[in-house]
Amino acid sequence: MTAITGFTAYSAPRAPRSRLRLTTRGRRVLLVLATVPLIVAALVYALNGGGATATDSSGSLEYVTVLPGDSLWSIAEQLAPRSDPRDVIDAIVDANGLTDESVRAGERLAIPAAYGD
Hints:
The chain is mainly α and 117 residues long. It has helices spanning 24-49, 72-79, 85-96; strands spanning 62-65, 108-111. A two-stranded antiparallel ribbon has the order 1-2. The radius of gyration is 35 Å and the shape is rod-shaped.
């Protein structure tokens, strides 16, 4: 048996290694991280951007501050004792852009001109 001498193994030149290597999953994670704040910002803008404004064509509205124990029904009865309280409540809800008929003590409500003093 003879030994082969002077044989050197050839190795191909290596390409320089990059510092960052993104996989498909990594790209998806970055995409989600970039879009989630945009979606959240759009939702916040959409929910807060359409705030209700109580306005009147004459520019003057009267306001009532809700006292502890008050409800829209009791306020409607005080404002217009001869009117149907349901109609007055609907007008107050529309004027203030309320989503339901619950009110809290200290809340300031705009009263439509038809029911003001």
